[in-house]
Specification:
Elements (H helix, E strand, L loop, with lengths): L1 H18 L11 H34 L17 H28 L8 E3 L2 E2 L7 E8 L2 E6 L4 E4 L1 E5 L4 E7 L4 E4 L7 E3 L5 E5 L5 E7 L11 E7 L1 H13 L3 E2 L1 H7 L9 E3 L1 E2 L3 H6 L10 H9 L8 H5 L31 H7 L6 H9 L10
Parallel strand pairs: 3-7, 6-12, 13-15
Antiparallel strand pairs: 1-2, 3-4, 4-5, 5-14, 7-10, 8-9, 8-11, 11-12
């Protein structure tokens, strides 16, 4: 009697907990997330076609061949059945082929880098449509959203009009994070010095949760924000509200914002440096640092050689104690152009020097003939 009571209480508690769950992943509000939910459901059903019969047969054989059943057939010499082998191997094979085909198709159709071709299942998009661009930067431990078309930025709050395609450009100030709005689309990683992309659309008005899906340290659990799906008029009013705030976001303000903080409140910026996102992406918000795209351009053209050592040694962007320790310089202090010295002489001497032998480099530089450019 007691065991039945305990079992009843456990079942009641379980169903009560499930009733309170927000199954947003299975019932999302964005078309991409809806297609992903369909994929989850179809894959689960296909796998259950094997799992359920196996579990049922396990119970059936345990009952049929129990010790007390004297009528069960006993055949100790049985070792093979072609029919049984066909069933055992063909059913899983068919399911694996079906899952493989579905995976192949959806891997391409749900590629986050692939521009959208529809608003939802019933409304296709014209090929020449232009999505709204939102630039996302994961910071420690908060989210920065830049709207280049509107010229605004927000911290820990995101908004977009309903049925409008969105192109997210995502990067990080340092540690890797994961940008995830379950109602909108799947999670996409953010990494420093790299840009990932996500195309998505929200189809219903509402306020949805967004967060980081990748552990990133002390403030990770508070790295959350609200995503507002708004009508076009509602979005325009939201933009006007952000522009009413007179905060500006330039390089100096960003370096201050970049410093680690926990439970950062929602903040608005009515004006943003249009080059800020590219500077964040190329890790050169501090203008004394060479941008990655500039260094890659030099490398593409043969590299900086010995003259480029200073560029590499100055890449201390990701050292927290170095950031914000001094005012931003008005000019850059790295090698931007190189000149070719005559063969032999200084060029030959420098070519034979061990890397980072500062004493020999200084001595060679001190005897450089007049008129020869060293590139420093």
């Amino acid at each position: 009697m007691l065991s039945k009571l305990v079992r009843g209480v456990a079942l009641t508690s379980m169903f009560s907990l499930l009733a309170g769950c927000n199954l947003v992943v299975i019932d999302p509000s964005g078309d991409i997330a809806s297609q992903q939910a369909d994929l989850i459901i179809v894959s689960t059903i296909l796998m259950l076609l094997i799992i359920v019969p196996v579990m049922a047969l396990t119970v059936f054989f345990a009952w049929k061949y129990r010790q007390g059943n004297k009528d069960a057939e006993y055949d100790p010499e049985w070792h093979h059945s072609t029919k049984l082998e066909v069933v055992i191997w063909s059913a899983p094979l068919v399911i694996i082929i079906a899952l493989g085909a579905i995976t192949w198709v959806t891997t391409h159709t749900l590629d986050p880098y692939r521009p959208l071709d529809r608003i939802d299942a019933e409304r296709p998009l014209p090929k020449d449509h232009e999505p709204m661009v939102i630039e996302v930067v994961s910071l420690d431990w908060k989210w920065l959203f830049l709207y280049p078309e509107q010229g605004i930025a927000t911290v820990n709050e995101l908004a977009a009009p309903v049925d409008t395609p969105i192109q997210f450009k995502i990067t990080s100030s340092g540690i890797m994070n994961s940008f995830f709005i379950p109602a909108l689309a799947g999670q996409i990683y953010s990494m420093a010095g790299m840009e990932t992309k996500l195309h998505a659309v929200i189809n219903e008005e509402g306020v949805f949760d967004g967060f980081s899906g990748n552990y990133s340290g002390e403030g990770f659990s508070h790295m959350r924000f609200k995503f507002h799906g708004l009508s076009q008029d509602g979005f325009d009013a939201w933009v006007d509200n952000v522009k009413a705030d007179e905060n500006l976001l330039g390089r100096s303000q960003y370096l201050e914002l970049e410093k680690p903080s926990i439970k950062e409140p929602v903040r608005y910026f009515s004006s943003v440096d249009p080059e800020l996102y590219n500077a964040i992406l190329n890790m050169c918000v501090d203008q004394s640092k060479m941008c990655m795209n500039e260094m890659m351009h030099i490398d593409e053209n043969g590299g900086g050689g010995l003259a480029g050592i200073n560029n590499v040694m100055s890449l201390t962007y990701d050292v927290p104690q170095m950031r914000g320790s001094q005012p931003l310089p008005e000019s850059k202090s790295y090698v931007a152009t190189l000149c070719t010295a005559p063969e032999g002489g200084l060029a030959g001497e420098l070519a034979n020097l061990p890397l980072f032998d500062n004493e020999q480099v200084s001595r060679a530089m001190s005897v450089a003939p007049s008129g020869v450019s060293t590139g420093f």
